[in-house]
Write a structure and sequence with these properties.
This protein is of the alpha+beta class. The protein contains 17 helices and 23 strands. The strands form seven sheets. Strands 3-9-10-16-13-12-11 form a seven-stranded mixed β-sheet. Strands 20-19-21-22-23 form a five-stranded mixed β-sheet, sandwiched between helices. A hairpin with a 7-residue loop joins strand 7 and strand 8. It is globular, with a radius of gyration of 26 Å. About 35% of the residues are buried. The mean pLDDT is about 95. The structure holds glycyl-adenosine-5'-phosphate. Glycyl-adenosine-5'-phosphate binds next to strand 10, strand 13, strand 16 and helix 12.
Length: about 500
C-alpha cells in the first residue's frame, strides 16, 4: 500500500466516523485523537479480542483495572523519572524540535529509496552504536556528517542533542503550594507490578501466572506523526507474566511465538508481520523483541515482548519497604522447596491504537465493480465479521407498505446479540455501499415478497452475492458467520 493510499485511509477514518482529530473546532491538539461512533465499536471489539485471548482463555491469567494516577514514587522505582527520555535536537532557525534518532532514521530511509545501500548501512550502524552507548554527541555528529537539514527552515543550524523526559506531570490536591507532583502513567504495566501481591494472594495464583490490563497511557512524544501511530494519549493492552527466575528465556520465547500467532489469526496476511530484535534494550529489559507490522509507511512496531527480569518488583520492594516476594512450595530437583523469591517477568505490550490502524490499513480496499459499460469503484473494509462495528444492516426496500414494521421487528430480534444498523433512506445500492465502507459484513433487505412468504435477501459484503433466505434463518446464519471462535480457536 502506498503513502497515497494511506492518505485515503486517514480521510476515510474521518469521513465514516472512525477517528477525528481531538478538539477539531479549535484546530485540533497535536497527536491527540477521538474515536467516533464506528471507531469506538471497532476499538472495543479489538480490545475484546485481546482480553478473550489473554484472560478468558488462560486459567492462569487474570485481569485488573488500575488507576491512571499512581504514587509518584512508582515512577522513581520504575526508572521512568531518570531514564524515560528521548534524544531531542532543536533547529535554531525554525525553532522546531525533533527526535535526533528519527531524523537519522528518515535519512536512512532516503538513502535506501535512492539506492545508496552502503550509506544506509553505515548510518544504521552508527545510529545503533550511538543509541546503545547513549552517546548524544555521536548522534549530533551523525546529523552533521550526513548533512541533515531541518525540513521547515532548510538549514543545518542545530542545537546540541539533549535528553527530554516523556512523562506528563500534574499536581494532586486543591492547593498548589501543598500539591504533590504526580505523573500521568506512561505505561499501564506499573499498575500491575504494584498490585502483584494483592492479586497473587487474593486470587491464590501460582507461578507461572499473568496479570493483564488495558488502559490509557500518556507520553509527551517530541514528534508525533502518522495519524494514530504515535500519539500523546493512547491505549495499551499489557500482560505481565510472573515466572520462576531462570525460566524467563523459555517464557519469553513462548510469548514471542504466541503473540505473533494471535496477530496472524486476524487474517490480515502473515507476511505483513515480522520480528525485530532490540539492539538497544530499555532500562528494565534483558531481552526484547518487537512484532512489526507493514504499515503503508513501512514496517513499524506494533507490539513489544520484553523480558523485564525482576527489575520492577525489586525496585518497588526497595522503595516501598514492602516485601514483594512469592513463596514457591514446589520442589526443585534436590527435593527442596524453591522458597521465597522475587519473580521474573515477561511482558507482552500491544498498542490498541496501532492495532486499530493496522486493521484499518489492511482492510481498506478499493475495488472495481459493475458491468463493462457501467464500471464503478467501491470502497470496502474487509474486517473480520466479529470485529466489524455493525454486524448487520437492515433495510426495508421502501418506507411504506408495512416494510419498515417488518424490518424493525427483525431488528428487535437481532439487536440483543448483534450490533444492527437500520436505514430506510436512499436507493438500496447506495445503502449497500455505505455499509461496505463501514465494513458491515451482512445486509438484510425486507421487500414486498417478505410480506408474502417471510423471506428476506441477505447480501454478503465481500462477494456482494445476494441470497433469498427464510427470515427465521437469519439468526442461524449470523451465528455461523460471526463468532469469536473464528478468530480465537
Ligand atoms: N510496558 C512496556 C511498554 O510500554 P513500549 O514498547 O514503550 O513498551 C508498548 O510500548 C506498545 O505501546 C508499543 O508497541 C506501541 O504499540 C504502543 N505505543 C507506545 N507508544 C505509543 C504512542 N506514542 N502512540 C501509540 N502507541 C504507542
Amino acid at each position: 500500500m502506498s503513502e497515497e493510499l494511506f492518505k485515503k485511509v486517514v480521510s476515510h477514518a474521518k469521513e465514516y466516523g472512525f477517528v477525528f482529530p481531538s478538539s477539531e473546532i479549535y484546530d485540533g491538539l497535536g497527536a491527540v485523537y477521538d474515536y467516533g461512533q464506528n471507531g469506538v465499536e471497532l476499538k472495543n471489539n479489538l480490545r475484546q479480542y485481546w482480553w478473550k485471548a489473554m484472560v478468558q482463555l488462560h486459567e492462569n491469567i487474570v485481569g485488573i483495572d488500575a488507576a491512571i494516577f499512581m504514587h509518584p514514587k512508582t515512577w522513581k522505582a520504575s526508572g521512568h523519572v531518570d531514564g524515560f527520555s528521548d534524544p531531542m535536537i532543536d533547529n535554531k532557525d525554525s525553532k522546531k524540535r525533533y527526535r535526533a534518532d528519527q531524523l537519522l532514521e528518515d535519512k536512512i530511509a532516503r538513502y535506501e529509496k535512492d539506492g545508496k545501500t552502503q550509506k544506509a548501512q553505515e548510518l544504521q550502524l552508527g545510529l545503533d552504536q550511538a543509541l546503545l552507548e547513549n552517546n548524544l554527541g555521536q548522534l549530533k555528529s551523525l546529523i552533521e556528517q550526513h548533512e541533515i537539514v531541518c525540513p521547515i527552515s532548510g538549514t543545518r543550524n542545530w542545537t546540541d542533542v539533549r535528553q527530554f523526559n516523556l512523562m506528563f506531570s500534574t499536581e494532586m490536591g486543591a492547593m498548589a503550594e501543598d500539591a504533590d507532583k504526580i505523573y500521568l502513567r506512561p505505561e499501564t504495566a506499573q499498575g500491575i507490578f504494584v498490585n502483584f501481591l494483592n492479586v497473587q494472594k487474593t486470587g491464590r495464583m501460582k507461578i507461572p501466572f499473568g496479570i493483564a490490563q488495558t488502559g490509557k497511557a500518556f507520553r509527551n512524544e517530541i514528534i508525533a506523526r502518522q495519524f494514530i501511530m504515535r500519539m500523546r494519549e493512547f491505549e495499551q493492552m499489557e500482560m505481565q507474566f510472573f515466572v520462576r527466575p531462570g525460566t524467563q528465556k523459555q517464557w519469553y520465547e513462548y510469548w514471542k511465538e504466541a503473540r505473533l500467532k494471535w496477530h496472524h489469526k486476524l487474517g490480515l496476511g502473515d507476511s505483513k508481520y515480522r520480528y525485530h530484535d532490540h539492539v538497544k534494550l530499555a532500562h528494565y529489559a534483558d531481552a526484547a523483541v518487537d512484532i512489526e507490522f507493514e504499515f503503508p509507511f513501512g514496517f513499524k512496531e506494533l507490539e513489544g515482548i520484553h523480558s523485564r527480569t525482576d527489575f520492577d518488583l525489586k525496585n518497588h520492594q526497595e522503595l516501598s519497604g514492602k516485601k514483594l516476594q512469592y513463596f514457591d512450595a514446589e520442589l526443585d530437583e534436590n527435593g527442596k522447596p524453591y522458597g521465597n523469591y522475587i519473580p521474573y517477568v515477561v511482558e507482552t505490550s500491544v498498542g490498541l491504537d496501532r492495532l486499530f490502524l493496522s486493521v484499518l490499513c489492511a482492510s481498506y480496499k478499493e475495488e472495481e465493480v459493475g458491468e463493462e459499460d457501467k464500471k464503478d469503484t467501491r470502497v470496502v473494509l474487509t474486517l473480520p465479521p466479529v470485529l466489524a462495528p455493525y454486524k448487520v444492516a437492515i433495510f426495508p426496500l421502501t418506507k411504506k407498505d408495512g416494510l419498515p414494521e417488518v424490518a424493525r421487528k427483525l431488528m428487535d430480534e437481532l439487536k440483543l446479540d448483534y450490533t444492527c444498523f437500520y436505514e430506510e433512506k436512499d436507493a438500496i445500492g447506495k445503502r449497500y455501499r455505505r455499509q461496505d465502507a463501514l465494513g458491515t459484513p451482512f445486509c438484510i433487505t425486507v421487500d414486498h415478497e417478505s410480506l408474502e412468504n417471510q423471506t428476506v435477501t441477505i447480501r454478503y459484503r465481500d462477494t456482494m452475492q445476494q441470497e433469498r433466505i427464510a427470515m427465521s434463518k437469519v439468526k442461524e446464519i449470523l451465528a455461523q458467520e460471526i463468532s469469536w471462535g473464528k478468530l480465537l480457536v
